[in-house]
Amino acid sequence: MDKAQIYTIVALVAYALTMAIVGCISYGKSKTLDGFLLGGRRIGAWATAFAYGTTYFSAVVFVGYAGQHGWNIGVGAIWIGVGNAVLGCLLSWLLFANRTRKMTKRLDAKTMPDYFEKRYGSKGLKILSAAIIFIFLVPYSAAVYKGLGSLFSAVFPGVETWVWMLIIACLTAVYLVAGGYIATAYTNLIQGVIMIVGVVCLVVAVLCHGSVEGVTGLFENLRAFESLPGDPNPTTGTQLTSIFGGSAFKFLCFNIMLTSFGTWGLPQMIGKFYAIKDTAAIKRGTVVSTVFCLIIGCGAYLIGATSRLVLGGKLPEGGIDSVVPALLMEVLGGGVLGSMLLAIIMILLLSASMSTLVAVVLTSASAVAVDLIPAVSKKEIPAKRQMLLTRVLCLVFVACSFIFATRNIPIIVSLMSFSWGIVSGCFIGPYIWGLFSKRITKLGAYAGILSGLLTVGGATLVISLRSGFSAAAARSPEMGVAAMAVSVVAVIAVSLLSRRQLKDPERIDALFSCYREE
Fold it and tell me: What is the pLDDT of residue 98?
């Protein structure tokens, strides 16, 4: 083994032991369902802020989005990171964190489907939303496994990708099943620190590379860049240095909206607000989370923007998804210091992905154990049995994600392409309006969920029939943004038309009185 492999293995073992220890320590505080899913609603500002940020950014962001958009768009792609920090993080915390905490505490809602049922008085909404979470989030976690496994295979070319995915799955299962949300919150804090150190180190290393020559050199060298003959993604220096994305401006805007506003309706993101302990923690968490997202988001896309220079304008054999792994090996592949930095970066990417995986798995497992099974069976499940069922389903979903990632099941890959937009497009309308307006009806909430689902489904069908499914997948950002907009409008429109069906005004008034407390 070379030095990079040795350092990476040492760092991986140390990281695994730390995660396992945190999971075991947290076991005693996660023996109840409320403790397992929400940490007893006593999680502090820093842990919640880092949990939000690390769930936001996974290896998919670094390898997929930053690599692809940095290669094709250039420095303008950094605006995606800025949008994620300002719109997806800062604005989300300012608008929704305190209201979500107070409303879900008053309702005693532990999950997004649970919130929909108790806010709108509809078990059908609970079943529908739980089914959507299960169908579209598990494929997303499978994609994260696959992307991370590919990264480790780049460092260890002699080891099959599935081996790394299995290691990641086992490590995820240990601390999630043992410690639940408490374990994930505090491991996210550790993972967040690793991510910040790793991104800062990588940005410095990339900017100091001979082909980049610092920030000034980045713009000068990109401006003089010329695509190689036969380049499958030809571009110009003007495009790569355009601060607003040049010819890709429209595409850039849709990606900013999808990846930023999309967090407003994703249950694995919103769930962090259920668990934070008080208003003071929210104020501190808002600042910490925003700064974290700004560093990670902008750092990732800045690294992607340097890729054409570092790689000499030659797209790696593995295609666009191999851009960042190839960049890492080029910048950090030699010398003791480079090998040590590469080990840190690999743990950074592992941390980013595992935090997202745990959030998605916990959301999916709770949707089935807490929401779907009791609603469908129409039987009251004892708390201890429900707790055991949730832990078992966490294991099941980790296993399913691993199997889907290794089998290359076409339908799973297809669902993953649309998962972010569909889930957020379905939930964003009924979730937000349920926090702010007393006049939202059950039919309005149904309209928000179904309209988001039908917007993506209908557009996919039409585009696929005309130009094939690959063309539809390429338009998934536009579909996701459209679904979110339609959902927000549909909730209000249908609620106005069905306002006579609004029942229990006294219950709603009492519910909204939670905002006047504290």
Answer: 95
